[in-house]
Design goal:
The protein has three helices and five strands, in the order βααββαββ. The longest helix has 22 residues, at about 35-55. The chain is globular. The chain has a five-stranded antiparallel beta sheet with strand order 1-2-3-5-4, with helices on one face. It has about 150 residues and is α+β, with helices and mostly antiparallel strands.
Length: about 150
């Protein structure tokens, strides 16, 4: 099935804002419900932030240009957002979410992105192939009134 839209990125300080603006534009063009745009945007932000922070820590060799490719497609009654990068291998589906704090005094910032993604998404799939991470985030579109 052909993607509704795609975007190629080079990791850097403008990658995340460009990706989020791209997804917002797709949401407007496809007339997604605002909740659908919100949850896919939040999940893209979480996944891409981790890729940018950890996936490209070591400088790639000159023969290996760092890159990230995004695409979104309608997969039956679901929306699928694919993130493909050639950074360090990382399978978020094998990671455990940290325990929730029992009080505000014990709470720490960060580390809960995967918990949010699992809450908002129908499915998260990962595979590694051809030296690339392939992450598919699948969400059910919302309907109804704003």
């Amino acid at each position: 099935m052909p993607p509704l839209a795609s975007l190629s990125l080079t990791p850097g300080p403008d990658a995340l804002p460009r990706a989020l603006a791209w997804l917002e534009s797709v949401a407007e063009q496809q007339q997604w419900h605002p909740r659908t745009a919100f949850k896919l945007g939040l999940c893209l932000d979480e996944a891409l932030t981790n890729i940018l922070m950890y996936g490209f820590q070591n400088e790639p060799s000159p023969a290996k240009e760092a890159r990230i490719a995004l695409s979104v497609e309608a997969d039956g009654a679901l929306l699928a957002l694919d993130i493909v990068d050639n950074g360090a291998p990382f399978d978020p589906t094998q990671s455990q979410s940290p325990q929730l704090a029992t009080s505000l005094d014990d709470a720490t910032a960060g580390g809960h992105g995967l918990r949010l993604m699992r809450h908002y998404l129908q499915d998260i799939q990962y595979r590694r192939g051809d030296g690339q991470n392939h992450l598919r985030l699948t969400a059910a579109p919302d309907s109804g009134t704003n």
